[in-house]
């Protein structure tokens, strides 16, 4: 069963690039890696998903090395509104949501 | 397109009571899953329903139960409430319930339960 480990918290100044790493040593062949963002009193919101190498969308990039035992979420030029908790989620969706394991989350604080 | 709707948003109960929470998924989504979020335990999976059938269940006691209706709306019930059941209960729906290994969970804003 895949489990994930993330740093508990990170601070960054506005305008900087932020990289949050997630460790998932027991990732299975069919598992995808997904990152979610959560603001206080709201449900998590999808950021990006990938299986291997690099994925980029309009808000973030996801880097996954060849062994897939870790992944890095990269947020370019963060702003104050990016202050939130970021969750790494590893699993496969085919057989149901219980194969999805949320990490402990990384609390990102963006400083003016 | 409306998002995932959860009701009620806030509620207060006392120990020993029971509670029912409701979740309306995004139109067309057939998979609905429930999560409990607490400061100490983080986000924990409760169960998942697809086409009115519970497909998977997390490691929670039998006091936690759920069901899904033919219109994909789902309810979860917690009986004999304990203080430790105080949490944010999140519901998520997904379009691809079967046949794909990737997908996106769409979460509601949650129901915050306080047990006194």
Structural topology:
The complex is a heterodimer of chains A (112) and B (116).
Chain A: E1 9-13, E2 18-23, E3 32-38, E4 45-50, E5 53-56, E6 61-64, E7 70-75, E8 84-91, E9 101-102, E10 106-111
Parallel strand pairs in A: 1-10
Antiparallel strand pairs in A: 2-7, 3-4, 3-8, 5-6, 6-7, 8-9, 8-10
Chain B: E1 5-7, E2 10-13, E3 19-24, E4 31-38, E5 42-50, E6 53-57, E7 64-68, E8 74-78, E9 87-94, E10 106-107, E11 111-115
Parallel strand pairs in B: 2-11
Antiparallel strand pairs in B: 1-3, 3-8, 4-5, 4-9, 5-6, 7-8, 9-10, 9-11
Detailed description of the structure:
The complex is a heterodimer of chains A (112) and B (116). Chain A has 112 residues and is mainly beta. Chain A contains no helices and ten strands. Chain A has strands spanning 9-13, 18-23, 32-38, 45-50, 53-56, 61-64, 70-75, 84-91, 101-102, 106-111. In chain A, strands 1, 3, 4, 8, 9 and 10 form a six-stranded mixed β-sheet that branches. Chain B has 116 residues and is mostly beta strands. Chain B has no helices and eleven strands. Chain B has strands at 5-7, 10-13, 19-24, 31-38, 42-50, 53-57, 64-68, 74-78, 87-94, 106-107, 111-115. In chain B, strands 2, 4, 5, 6, 9, 10 and 11 form a seven-stranded mixed β-sheet that branches. The termini of chain B are far apart. The mean pLDDT of chain B is 91. Classes of the chains: A mainly beta (112), B mainly beta (116). The interface between A and B is medium-sized, with 27 and 35 residues.
List keywords for this structure.
heterodimer, A: mainly beta, 6-stranded mixed β-sheet, 10 strands, globular, B: mainly beta, 7-stranded mixed β-sheet, 4-stranded antiparallel β-sheet
């Amino acid at each position: 069963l895949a489990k994930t480990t993330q740093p508990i918290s990170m601070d960054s100044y506005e305008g900087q690039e932020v990289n949050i790493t997630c460790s998932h040593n027991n990732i299975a062949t069919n598992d995808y890696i997904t990152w979610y963002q959560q603001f206080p009193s709201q449900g998590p919101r999808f950021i990006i998903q990938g299986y291997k190498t690099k994925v980029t969308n309009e808000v973030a990039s996801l880097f996954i090395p060849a062994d897939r035992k870790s992944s890095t979420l990269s947020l370019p030029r963060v702003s104050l509104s990016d202050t939130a908790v970021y969750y790494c989620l590893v699993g496969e969706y085919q057989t149901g949501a219980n194969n999805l394991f949320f990490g402990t989350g990384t609390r990102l604080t963006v400083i003016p | 397109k409306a998002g995932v709707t959860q009701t009620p948003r806030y509620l207060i109960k006392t120990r020993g009571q029971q509670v029912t929470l409701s979740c309306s998924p995004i139109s067309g989504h057939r998979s609905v899953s429930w999560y409990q979020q607490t400061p100490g335990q983080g986000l924990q999976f409760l169960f998942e329903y697809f086409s009115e059938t519970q497909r998977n269940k997390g490691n929670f006691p039998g006091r936690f139960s759920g069901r899904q209706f033919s219109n994909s709306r789902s309810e979860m019930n917690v009986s004999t409430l304990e203080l430790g059941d105080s949490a944010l209960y999140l519901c998520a729906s997904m379009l691809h319930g079967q046949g794909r290994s990737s997908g996106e969970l769409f979460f509601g804003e949650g129901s915050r339960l306080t047990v006194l």
